Amino acid sequence: MMQLSRNSLPQEGGISAPLLPVPLSFERNWLQDLESRLEKGGPWGDWKLSRLAVQGEQCGLVTSFDELQCTKHLSSLSPLPHQLDTAHKVLFEMSGRAILADEVGLGKTIEAGLILKEYLVRGLVGKVLILVPASLVLQWVRELNAKFGINAVAQKKAYSWGNDIVVASLDTAKRDPHKELLLSSEYDMLIIDEAHKLKNKKSTNYQFVQQLRKKYCLLLTATPVQNDLGELFNLITLLKPGQLGNQGDFAANFVVDKRQPKNEVQLRGELSKVMIRNRRGEGPVSFTKRKVRNIPLTLSPEEKALYDGVTAFVKDTYQESGGNLSSMLSLVTLQREVCSSRDAVFITLVNLIKKLPADSPKRDRMMELLQSIRTVKTNTKAEKTMELIREMNEKVIVFTEYRATQEYLLQYFRDHGLQCVPYSGGMNRGKKDWMMDLFRGRAQVMIATEAGGEGINLQFCHHMINFDLPWNPMRVEQRIGRVHRLGQQNDVVIYNLSTQGTIEEHILHLLHEKINMFEMVIGGLDVILERFEQKESLEKSLYKIMLEARSDEELRSGLDHIGESLSELSQETRQESGVTP
Amino acid sequence: MTLTAQEVRRHVMDYLEATGCTVIEVSPLHVTVKLSPRADRMLTDRPYYWGFVERTGAEPETLSFTFVFDPEQYDHAAAQAAAAPARPRGGTNLRPAPMVQPGSNDMEAAAETDTAAAGGAPAGVPPGVSTEPQDSILARYFGIVPALPRLGPGMIRREDVTYGSKRLKQIWAAARDEGKCLQLFEDPGSRQRMTLFSAAYEPWLGVCYKVEMTCDLKREELHFLGISLTTGRIAADFGTRLGSLELTPRLPENIHIQPYELTVSGGADRLESYLTDQLAGLDYSWAEEARERLRLELSIVDLYYSELLKEPDEEKKQAIEEQYNARRTETAWQYEPQIAVSAVTYGLFHLRSS
């Protein structure tokens, strides 16, 4: 940063220099170079090359303060209008500090790349740190190199930090010995992907990023407000402390309740100074269609018996416990798993039994359930999935929530001669990447667990099968977002498997019929959920209904109730966005 | 400013010519060239290889490239050439454009398959097997690996050189490296040798200054200035004047150089004063605006921390104070306007007195 500053000008020429309103520094190493060559009699440069150098300099010259230069340097990329707009805004209105909060699949990475490239071209940025989840490190490196011609390097060993542009995982960076090294450096630009991991200001992530010295800073997240307005405040404080006033002002001016803002217009105005959020429904961005096929299945008698057994057990236990929801989570899981595969139920059940005291009366009942698992020889869903895959004869990604189901499916498909690879959150970075490459290259099927859903881009595949459904619509949307995003050439076909007469059928009905979530390209899902969840999270409401319903009728009416309020909300938001497009 | 394919071509050809490279084949769309040792050192990033050559005295084997200036047209032409049933032109490099898998807009991929074909490797890759470079085991580990140079006759890597490509930037940087410091004489022409009187030459110090005006944004200007070390006269558009002259690195016959009235560093001082004068005449509203932004940002920061600094706990307060100062420094770093001037090229030019 320090430059040879020669602000007082030499007087020997007899010319009095006017004072500039800005500090001026002359770099004078060239003079020494010239003098020493004169002394030694050379070597001298080539005139032609010298002229070429000046021409090159002229071509790269940034002649205007406020015009994007980077697009001229990008031959292998044609950014979309909203991406260019975003880059323009961040550079010239936000001075390089912003939260990029586009909805999933609109190309936040491209926007960040454009902004970074622009600063590099302008020579305003030299040293860059990019912190992303471990699973995305290589993808970032590739995109920056291939699409932007930026020499980004993945952090592998301690010496990697010495490179100008480093992509690393936040979890690695915040740990010793890296932490100290990074905190003692200065970064012209800091980019953080999946920045919603920085919402809690007590977390080590947050404190680490706060301490990093940075000039420009981009935070990327698709879900800037998930639960709590306070979290948004924290995120902005990281970027520009004081932008929303201090915590007290913020609470007084904008917050009614944790989830409910007041003075929304004013808040939105303040937010627009630091945050850009493009939505799928806006702008000329055209996405391919989503086609939904719901596949109703009938359970085999043994499977049905198991399902009923588990359901009865879960309900009874809930009633015994006196309706305490928090201790019921593992039971809820059990109920959901029984819709997926017997393997998943088996593992959870065994773990539950292990925790019980030896003389517990429940033990016998659970052992009974285990016995009935043994009687189940077939998996109706797996058979159907197999059939579907054979029919489409194209690349397909199968999502399940459970590792046990994943394992089972892998085995099952392989036994039947299908090439498939697993993908899950527990895999390390290298393995995840390898699996992605295998899927792109040779395997027809990828079986991913929910955790593996974040941050993988599979535009080359346009079939997805929801082997089971998450009960949180945002998670469903994230699944779809893996495949249905910019760059997808084909219509995306989504298959939902649902077993008749089970809770799954109801959930699918709710998600599909009521929120129309599979076909809703208009986005706005987060808005609907935000409003709905002002009292309680949707998932929890569903659990409650499921556990408390004494009959199928009750269950249905409870779910219908939720469904209605959701569809009302969705109509409301549609009207609002219709009024102010 | 951007460059057309033709302008890029001219720049690249100028460089290749100036460094003595051997052009194997050339068209308006591309050039196939065997680099000279001098250009190879600058462009191929093989310091170990050149260290080996220096130490062992081995005969250097330089790399060859096909630089394509207009990839679209080139591929089109190549496809047409391949489609034509006529026998292939002897020694031509117009091979059919490699099929790049959809979704891979990576020109590396094209380059790779191209070289493979050139080396006579089987072109048929089993279907379903990706040929993208990221499939290599190293790429899996590092995300991206620069394509390794391949040696040997016939191994010619294709590279697309367009405005913004790394290669063009590298060529400019290489040109600057070898051409920044000059000592040149105006060529007096053959007639001067016959004349009785020796011609008077005036020594000039010429510097191409790059002015970078920076705040949170940036603008740049180039000023190619010259000053006569005899008279102290300053030429504002010295670059254009030099461009119209025939210059040679050798001292011509039958000329004499007028005595220096100014030292080189004296000349530099005057040039700097002159440039400062020029810069003083510019519009500085950008700096005012940047300072205004800075003031605003700082006031927000001050307000925010003034509340926090009421913390009674000394230890906590100290931490907050530290954070506060860090944030203030960061903000100033981001917005504070300044101008930095550096030299792109510079040298002594001996020109005929007029």
From TrEMBL, chain A:
Record keywords: ATP-binding, Helicase, Hydrolase, Nucleotide-binding
InterPro entries per the UniProt record, alphabetical: DEXDc_RapA, Helicase_ATP-bd, Helicase_C-like, P-loop_NTPase, SNF2-like_sf, SNF2/RAD54-like_C, SNF2_N
Region forming the signal peptide: none
Domain of life: Bacteria
Keyword Cell membrane part of the UniProt annotation: no
Helicase ATP-binding domain boundaries: 89-242
Name of this protein: Helicase conserved C-terminal domain-containing protein
Native organism: Paenibacillus typhae
Automatic annotation (TrEMBL), chain B:
Region (Disordered): 79-128
Family annotation (Pfam families): YqhG
Species whose genome carries this gene: Paenibacillus typhae
Sequence ranges of Low complexity compositional bias: 79-89, 108-120
Protein name, per record: Uncharacterized protein
